[in-house]
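Hi U.,

Before I forget, here's the chain from the pilot set. I'm dumping it here mostly so it's searchable later in email.
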Amino acid sequence: MKHAKLIMDRDYAIGEIDPRLYGSFIEHLGRAVYGGIYEPDHPTADEEGFRRDVIELVRKLNVPIVRYPGGNFVSGFNWEDSIGRRDQRPRKLDLAWFTTETNEVGLHEFCHWAKKANTEVMYAVNLGTRGPDAARNVVEYANHPSGSYWSDLRIANGEKEPFGIHLWCLGNEMDGPWQICHKTAVEYGRIANEAAKVMKWVDPTIEVVASGSSGHGMPTFGSWEYEMLGECYENVDYVSLHRYYDNKSNNTPDFLARSMDLDSFIHDVLAVCDAVGGRKHSKKKLNLSFDEWNVWYHSNEQDKEIVKQGRWNRALPLLEDIYNFEDALLVGSMLITFLRNADRVKVACLAQLVNVIAPIMTRNGGGAWAQTIFYPVMHASMYGRGTALRPIVHSPVYDCKDYEAVPVVDATATMDEEGNVTVFAVNRDLAEDAELELDLRAFGGFSRMEHTVLHHDDVKAINTEEHPFTVAPSPVKTEGITDKTLTPVLPALSWNVIRLIR
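Structure:
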């Protein structure tokens, strides 16, 4: 058995954890909306056509914010198409995903769904085919009380009270050539600056997210942030990051080490942000919004055929990755990485929420179930609140194809307002359990320990509608706390949640 040690101190704090770290994302893509959250003919559908079984699962994830309506979709989207009478809304060709958007679910409907799911809306504006004028108008429509053209139109459309959307994305992945109206860093920085300026003139209480590099490997990475922020630094509040990982090489040790790349990505973007702030002699410090992250590769090949056969159809079943057990382990390590950077990573959105590279899957007319990745996200959102601690972790290491000195035990800790401590830990070892020594010398007064484990002997195990709990967490029997050192055992290849309760 391997041995690792985690030393904690209540005064070694990284910072307060923003609840929005556990956000998610719904784009008008695939069956995320139509067949996902919305299916009016489904047996569980409510009066607005939203699936109650999906809402119940979303509530279990305790999602504080959901990014909407895109994604690549937003760069060709006219927000006005999604308001007013449904039977008068236009059907439009979506050039991002080669489908037809019916606009059955629009701004009003999505805000209603968000309330039912106990979450807030993070709204993205189109800075691809459109610009500051449309951006300021949608803020006026959504947030201004009354007495103006757009706010009064909202009232006429049945919504007397403002939606009160606080967080806004300034476009999406504008550095990517695949994006509708892709821009250079300076072009985007200029339009983002002007959009942010007028949006905040309409509603000074909002926050806005500038579109950073769509990936660490982009040829313009670094220079994009530096040049873009040179144009809009003082008017934006966050810079976005997007990152997806895959295991196409079927190398589990290498795959589980990808969170090391995630940590480097975060630190590299922060270095550029702070360099721009220093160059401008600014007292302002920008934080990060990691508003797209996940594992994504299982559906890549089938998506090509689906688009080829169903081009311009409605709600094609795109990006329907079926997640296995090892995917859940990496998702757990990615969440641990966000917590270790909670002083600067304030928003994160798992992409996406339902059906499309998602923790929740549905069948049209049928059931809804949790995929393997559902559980680390649920655990982190439930227990990773309060203060992120900076524990000292001593762990054996291993080398693999792309990384050296990878910690076998990847772990971090949080402390809530009542002084309860939660340790999140992944054992990356394929064969050996790991004894994790918890040094609690700076604490005391814990009455009990709870240990929950997510493990399966088959790294490729999945959950299905017929067998929804093939991969599911289970409690580990623990003894009462008698001293200041505990040694829970982390099974080989496992996600662990260890709660120390006062």
